[in-house]
Fold this sequence. Notes:
The protein is mainly alpha-helical and 260 residues long. It has ten helices and no strands. α1 runs parallel beside α9 (209-233) and α3 (45-69) packs across α8 (179-203). The longest helix is centred in the first third of the chain and has 25 residues, at 45-69. It is globular and about 50 Å long. The two termini are 30 Å apart. The mean pLDDT is 90.
Amino acid sequence: MVHPATLALLVLAALLAGFVDAIVGGGGLITIPALMLGLPAGTPITTVLGTNKVVASAGATFATAQFLRAKILTFREMLGPVACAMTGAALGVRMAYVLQGRGDAWFRPVMVGLMVVMLAFTVFRPDLGKVHAPKYGVNHQRGLAALISFALGAYDGFFGPGTGSILIFLFVAVLGFDFLRSSGLAKSVNWASNIASLALFVSQGSWMPVVGLTMAVGNGVGGYLGARTALTRGSGLVRAVFIAVVSVLILRLGWQMIGK
C-alpha cells in the first residue's frame, strides 16, 4: 500500500506530467521517477511501467481529444500512424518482459546523443517548425509517418520517456510539419502506443490499480490544460517548451550515466 501523503504527491506529479506531455511529450520523465520513488521497494519494473501507462493514457486521451476538436488533426491523418504505433508498442512491451532485470543502461548513451542532435538542430534553425510546409506527397508522407510511429511505438512500449518529444522533432524535421500540428499528431500516436501497452501490461497484472487510477485523474486534468494552452499559444510556445524539455531530458539521462 502507498501512504496517502505519498499518493497525493504522485497525483501532483501526474498533473504536471500531463500538462507538459500534452504540449511536447516527456511526461514519463516526471511520472516514472516519481513512481520509482513512491512505490514500495522491490516493485518490478514492469509494474512501474504498467502503472505509468494507466496514468499516461488518461492525459493522452484528453489531449488528443482537444487537438481533434480544434481540427488540428483529422481521423484520416491519424489512422495509419495510430495503427502502426499500436503494433510497435505491442512489440515493445514484449521486449520489456523479455529483458526485465537486465537494466537499461545500454541505450542511455544513444538517447543522450539523439537528444543533443535534436536540441542543436532546433536551436540553430529558429525557423524550423514555424510554418506548416509538408515536404512530400500525401502517400509518401503517410508512409513515413507510419514508419516513424511504429519505431517510436516500440520504444514507448519498452520504456517510454522522451517518446513524444522525439515524435514531434521527427514530424517537424522529416515531414515538414509545424510544431503545433506535430504536437497534435505526436499526441495521437503516443495515445495509441499508451493504450496498446496499457492493455498488455494490465492483462499480465503488471499495475497497481489504486495508484494508477488516482494518478490518472491528475494526468487527465493536466493533459486537458496542456492541450488547451498549446492550441491557444501556438507553435511558438510548443517550440520553447520542446527546447526546455529536451534539455532536461539530456541532463537527466546524462546524470544517470555518470551515476552508474
